[in-house]
Amino acid sequence: MKKRALGSSGIELPELTLGTWLTFSTSNQELANGLVEAVFDAGINAFDTADVYGMGDGERALAIALSGYPRDSYFLASKVFFPMSDAPEDRGLSKKHIFKSIDNSLSRLNTDYLDLYQCHRFDSDIPLEETIEAMGVLISSGKIRAWGTSVWAPQQLQQAQKVAQALGVPGPVSEQPRYNILCPEPEREVFPVCEALGLGVLTWSPLAQGFLTGKYSEQTSQPKASRASHPKPQGVFLQNALGNPEAFKKVEALKEIARGIGVSLPALAIAWCLRRREVTTVLIGASGIDQLKENLQAVSVDWSEGLERAISKVTAGPLLEL
To answer: Which domain holds residue 146?
Structure first.
């Protein structure tokens, strides 16, 4: 598994990172254990989670799955922002919530530190100075090695760097945008700004919430165990495609391209994300070991100008929020 630099942070990550949003829970610990073992076998030692995944249960499941591996053998990232209870202050990017959340995450993950702590969204209700000061304290105390952002606008990333410089504390080292064949929008502004600021890029939703697996049909009801059957929160983005005939046409055309080069559609979709040099790592998930192994084929896809042209022709048109 090749590695790529996380911007100018000095950190290197494998091209693929195991995400835990929808598939990690202590109620299905056997699957979590199997996925972690499989990615280690494939040379992947980076894991991304968040406190809000399963309201903490995702972190607990990941900790159990990682319990047999030395802490210095893997890269561990989590996130903070979304409400963790009904308490008004138990959300956002205030110092109080950040300090409480990091301790809770470290406890659930059974570790003394995180390699990367990400602001899961931008908090317009809290001064940016307060958030960045809090991250500086966490770095100084050794609770995190670095901090980053997720789904922040280019202007917010630029402002964060300016504020960090003014405060004399470390700024963000990464951004985590949604990015896939049907939603290439980050290429327009986010990628250029990240490159200019020296930020690494961790992308999520490479399969457009499962739409780019090709398992959904425009004419039939959706599989009961799929994200489409659980619109909140699992399929919240997926709903934008299921009622869009044009999206189904694009997927069918992409299937033919994938067949033409002898790979699965998911592998092609992930490889498409990896083709950009700005991308440090692509977050992948799976509901089974076989599915995970299929997705790992992405790193062996030989990207070419012809393949780029074929996909660009298929995907031309309005962006989808996937």
So the answer is: 3-207+273-301
